Structure formats: C-alpha cells, structure tokens
C-alpha cells in the first residue's frame, strides 16, 4: 500500500516503468558504485545544499534535471565554448546536458531536487 516519504531520506529509483523506494542508509553513498541495480534509469532525490562542492561531475548516460526548492545556487556548466553559469533562485531548475561537466556554487543554503542518470557518473577535482 502506498505511503508518504521524504525524498531526503528515501530516494526513488526510476527504472521505468517502476519507481522503487530506496531508504538512505548511512553507507548509501559509500556503496553506490557497487550497486548494479542503480546503473539503469534515474535516481530522484532531494539534497540539502549547504556548501559549495569540491569537484565537477558528469553523467554520460543521460541528462540530469536539477530543480531548486529553496535557497540560491549557481550551476556551472563546462561547455565547449566555455563555462556557462545558470543562476537558480527561488524555485527554478535547469537540464544539464548529457556528458557535460558541471558543479554547483551555493549562494544561499537550501534544498534541491535531482533526477540523475546513474550509469557511468564521473567526478574530477576543481
């Protein structure tokens, strides 16, 4: 039977046509690289954005959707013709193109919704 949940504590794996609830355990992020079940589809989650990240990220398996629920965040996209800053203020979002390096700069702490393709995600230091 369906029940309510908090997307900051229970992520949703969108492996269409299924939407699978995933409790966020203390080792969730440390073990994510070993989870074959998350290599398909998208992971939907809410994260509290308190600090500017220390790395770039990219998703070769698909586009990422980011939507700011509160606060203020600049999303920096490393595009072929240079960096582009997308200012997210109030409730606003953007689509990060497939296989594009991106990072966030927290202007004002808040919450952000992510819909992210998991397979092949890479990171590199700033």
Verbal overview:
The strands form three sheets. Strands 2-1-3-10-5-8 form a six-stranded antiparallel sheet, with no helix packed on it. A three-stranded antiparallel sheet has the order 7-6-9, with no helix packed on it. The chain has one domain: Jelly Rolls (Sandwich), CATH 2.60.120. Strand 1 and strand 2 form a beta hairpin. The radius of gyration is 15 Å and the shape is globular. It has 126 residues and is mainly β.
Summary of the model, kept short:
This protein is mostly beta strands and 126 residues long. Helices cover 0% and strands 56% of the residues. It has strands spanning 10-15, 18-23, 42-49, 55-58, 64-68, 72-79, 82-89, 92-96, 101-108, 110-117, 122-125.
Briefly note the CATH topology name.
Answer: Jelly Rolls
CATH class: Mainly Beta
Beta-strand residue fraction? over 45%
Shape: globular
Helix/sheet category: mainly beta
Number of strands: 11
- Biggest sheet layout: 6 strands, antiparallel
- Quote the distance from N terminus to C terminus: 45 Å
Radius of gyration: 15 Å
Using brief descriptors, characterize the structure shown:
126 residues; mainly beta; Jelly Rolls; three-stranded antiparallel β-sheet; globular
What topology emerges from the helices and strands here?
Blueprint: E1 10-15, E2 18-23, E3 42-49, E4 55-58, E5 64-68, E6 72-79, E7 82-89, E8 92-96, E9 101-108, E10 110-117, E11 122-125
Antiparallel strand pairs: 1-2, 1-3, 3-10, 4-11, 5-8, 5-10, 6-7, 6-9
């Amino acid at each position: 039977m369906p029940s309510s949940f908090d997307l900051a504590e229970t992520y949703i794996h969108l492996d269409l046509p299924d939407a699978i609830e995933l409790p966020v355990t203390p080792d969730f992020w440390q073990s994510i690289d070993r989870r074959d079940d998350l290599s398909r589809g998208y992971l939907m989650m809410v994260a509290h954005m308190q600090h500017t990240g220390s790395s770039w990220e990219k998703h070769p398996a698909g586009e990422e959707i980011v939507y700011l629920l509160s606060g203020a965040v600049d999303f920096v996209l490393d595009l072929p013709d240079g960096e582009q800053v997308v200012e997210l203020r109030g409730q606003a979002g953007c689509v990060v193109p497939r296989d594009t390096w991106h990072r966030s700069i927290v202007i004002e702490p808040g919450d952000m919704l992510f819909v992210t393709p998991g397979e092949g995600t890479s990171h590199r230091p700033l």
